[in-house]
Write a structure and sequence with these properties.
The chain is of the alpha+beta class. The protein has helices spanning 68-75, 126-131, 136-143, 175-182, 189-196, 203-215, 222-226, and strands at residues 3-7, 11-14, 19-21, 24-26, 32-33, 37-39, 62-66, 92-94, 107-110, 113-120, 148-154, 156-158, 163-168. It is globular, with a radius of gyration of 17 Å.
Length: 230
Amino acid sequence: MSELWVKGISGLYLGDQVQMHNGVASCINQKHIAKQLTVQFDRVIGNSEADPKHHGGLDRVLHHFPREHYGQYRRWDLMSTFFDAPSMGENISTVGLNEAQVYIGDIVQIGDVTLQVTQPRSPCFKLNLQFGHPKFALAMQESRMCGWFYRVLSEGDINPNDSIVLLERKTDISVAKAMQIYFLAEFDAAQYQILLECEGLAQTWVNSLQRRLDQQSIEDWAMRLYGNAS
């Protein structure tokens, strides 16, 4: 299959400067407009993460976030002031493509680069600090307006005028559905197994789901969602 998703990108962003934000190291506010992204298998040249344990890696080389979500978060009064791309720390911003249309395992072409969708963004308390609202991360988790990550299948350059084309669909689980399953309030082995079987799912999510099945319980989300404020 070959399906045009987006003709032209709203913005490309990168940054590698670490900044302290309320005592927490982050690169989220250091992203700036890029004329081009040079994408390698393990990184984007000129881009980095302050916390490589929880961000980045081979399954999360690029973060794609729908620009229209900013407007919705503003309407929900979840932002202390006006924010727009790339305030989420995204590398790719588009209009007209969302988590219900993008599926785990999707293989897409952007410019010279072939990518695979691996997971939704798993929101953490740094978003609360970024947007000045103590429950922003929780709102993202519940609304599933989170964006998604890519692994790199072929290296190359991405330019703002490049189209985004879906080449192949590997699963029937959308990014929104994956987010819903992963963050179910109650333990659900059957649903976890469905998500585990998705081709292309990020290894960190595979490991987390397997731990839940082994322990028959869900991990505590308080520190991730609220940090020390919990």
